[in-house]
Each structure stands twice: as structure tokens, then as C-alpha cells.
Amino acid sequence: MNQPDPSAAHSTTQQAATPGAATDATDATPAAGTAESLPLIDFQVDLRGESCPYPVIHTLEALAQMQEGQTVEIVSDCPQAYRNIPDEAVTVGSRLLTEPLRDGAQMSFFIQKGPDFDPRAAVKSAKAAHKARRKAGNA
Fold first, then answer.
1. CB under 8 Å, gap of 24 or more: what pairs does 103-108 form?
2. Which of 31, 41, 52, 72 is the catalytic position?
3. CA 78 and chain centroid, separation
4. Is 92 in contact with 120 (CB distance < 8 Å)?
5. Mind listing the pLDDT tens digit for each residue in 10-53?
6. What is the pLDDT of residues 68-91, one digit of tens each?
7. What ranges make up the beta strands (E) of the chain?
8. Mean pLDDT in residue range 110-120
9. Does residue 52 have an active-site annotation?
């Protein structure tokens, strides 16, 4: 199974340092909370600036490429993501490790891919979100 693609349109980075720490010099906004209280993460996906439903779509795509038990931090500033990302991640068999952390408009979600992850449900959910977005754009 492939790992999340770092060259994707959104920023995906493998996190080897302290959770919440900046992944490079251009991404200097740390996640809310302290390093001691945050889960260890394998990847960080920066979705700031993406409007709904794209944070959900990119989250589900990242989870589909991860190994069971790996953890991703999703960073978003889309207001709808506060509810939609956790709901969709749990629906497809992943686990929210903490409540979403907020730092102003920015939110961080820590999601672990679970053993019951259903890639078909993730694809179906992502396609439905994309279709709803297109339909709303045409209305």
C-alpha cells in the first residue's frame, strides 16, 4: 500500500519530529497544545485554505493510503471541517484520538487509521462530498 503522496496539491509531510512542530521553515505555525499532550503522528496534511468538502475528501484519501495504526494530523481552517472531518473519519472505521484542537480559525485533528477502515466507504463518501460540492456550485 502506498503512503500519502507528498507531491499532492495539499501539503502532506511525514512527521518525524515532535507532534505539532513545524514541518519546515515555511510552515511555522505549531498546533495548539503541548508536545506532551499530543499523540505521536506519522503524517501531517495541511489543508488550510481548502473549502468544504475538500478537507474531508483529502482526509479520506490520506487515510486510504496509510497503514493500519498510523496516525495523521489534519490541519484545516474550514469551519465545516470541525464536524465533518471527525464524523467521516469515524464513519469509515478510523479513530479520532483527541478532540479537535483550535487555534483561532485553525483546527488540528489527530486521526488513527483503524483495523475496520473501509476503503470502499471512504471512496463512496469522498465521491458523495465532491458531487454535493459540484451540485451546490451549479445551483
1. 103/29, 103/31, 103/32, 105/77, 105/79, 106/29, 106/32, 106/48, 106/75, 106/76, 106/77, 107/75, 107/76, 107/77, 107/81, 107/82, 108/20, 108/31, 108/32, 108/73, 108/74, 108/75
2. 52
3. 12
4. no
5. 544 444 333 333 333 233 334 444 455 788 999 999 999 999 89
6. 999 999 999 999 999 999 999 999
7. 11-14, 43-46, 71-76, 95-96, 101-103, 106-112
8. 92
9. yes
